[in-house]
Amino acid sequence: MRNPQSNRAKLPPLATLPAFSIAARTGSLTLAARELHLTPGAISRQIKSLEDALGVQLFHRGHNAISLTDAGRQYLIHVNAALATLENGTRALLPDRVRLVIQAPITLARRWLIPRLGAYLQENPSVDLNIQSLALGAGDVPDVTVSYKRGSDEARFASAFLLDRTVAVCSPLLIGSMAKTVTPDALLDLPILLDTADAWSWRRWCAAADIPFQPRSGSITFDTDEASIDACMTGLGIGQASPSLIERELREGQLIQLCPAINPIVGAYEIAGPAPTDRAAGFDQWLQTWRTEAATRS
Questions:
Q1: What is the DSSP letter of 137?
Q2: Does the global pTM surpass 0.90?
Q3: Could you write out the DSSP letters of every residue in 217-284?
């Protein structure tokens, strides 16, 4: 009689699946390592072990960047579904679940906070998060409100968890090989993208470059930095953005940084007001660990 188990695929090392899922979500071995409290080398070895067990390549590997192969994208769907089932089952068994409502600017929420929430949930498995965009108005009374304050003096932002340094960026299609040699003044010969009507970031950038802010080829103004970043990626002009909010685009080459030595502080993100609950205070403390890590890297 034929053994019915003989046609069953051998399961890969299951302990490697979280590393694969998180690396795929963040596009970074370093961020995956931070979430799992491991080293990037350990994450790399886990993914290699998974690839060897499956007999397929899951990631393309480049200089300081990884991206999913076609096989990796297909496998990720099943891995995420399996991990979500296990996570939901585990959370259902946990007593005393709490809800944490967080309001934050939409660009910060989409581009900075969401890619890091996995680390918070791993450390706080009994918390149900409700993320609300300030741009869409308040739906619930927030436990935590993230606010943005303008300013160029770092000393003003002692309680901030993320400093907003602005850099000039563009699509590689816009100026191509000129990117490494273009001067700050020459950038103003190209269309300029503004994320505020008063051109605050551009004026601070030009001041740091010791040139007047005088766009000579016109400008396009948007009411959010999210829209300005999208326009920049399409090649409409030269934009301004915080490297912390365009990590993936810079890593994957969708945007390139121009005149990298010029990166003035234009503001900061911080928690507005005192934390009303212990869990809100805990979230604030978790946010501060990212500032500490950024300071250590620099």
A1: -
A2: no
A3: S-EEE-SSHHHHHHHHHTTSSBEEE-GGGSHHHHHHTSSEEESTT---EEEEEEE-S--SSHHHHHHH
CA angle 178, 181, 162 (to 5 degrees): 100
| Domain interval for residue 203 | 167-263
Number of alpha carbons in the 13 Å side-chain half-sphere of residue 129: 20
Instruction: Compute the distance between CA of residue 89 and CA of residue 94 in angstroms, rounded to an integer.
Output: 9
Q: What is the pLDDT of residues 11-26, one digit of tens each?
A: 889 999 999 999 998 8
Instruction: Output the six-digit token pair for 193.
Output: 């993208």
Distance CA 188, CA 180 (A): 16
DSSP of 11-76, one letter per residue? PP-GGGHHHHHHHHHHT-HHHHHHHHTS-HHHHHHHHHHHHHHHTS--EEEETTEEEE-HHHHHHH
pLDDT level of residue 134 (50, 70, 90 thresholds): low
Asked if residue 291 and residue 259 are part of one domain, the reply reads no
Using alpha carbons, select from 6, 16, 294, 2 the residue that is nearest to residue 157: 294
How far apart CA 114 and CA 260 sit, in angstroms, is 26
Q: How far apart are the first and last CA of the chain?
A: 65
Largest CA distance in the chain: 85
Residues 202 and 237 occupy one common structural domain:
yes
Residue with the bigger pLDDT between 129 and 274: it is 129
- Position 256, amino acid: I
SS3 label, residue 170: strand
Q: How many domains does the chain have?
A: 3
Find how far residue 181's CA is from the centre of its chain: 28
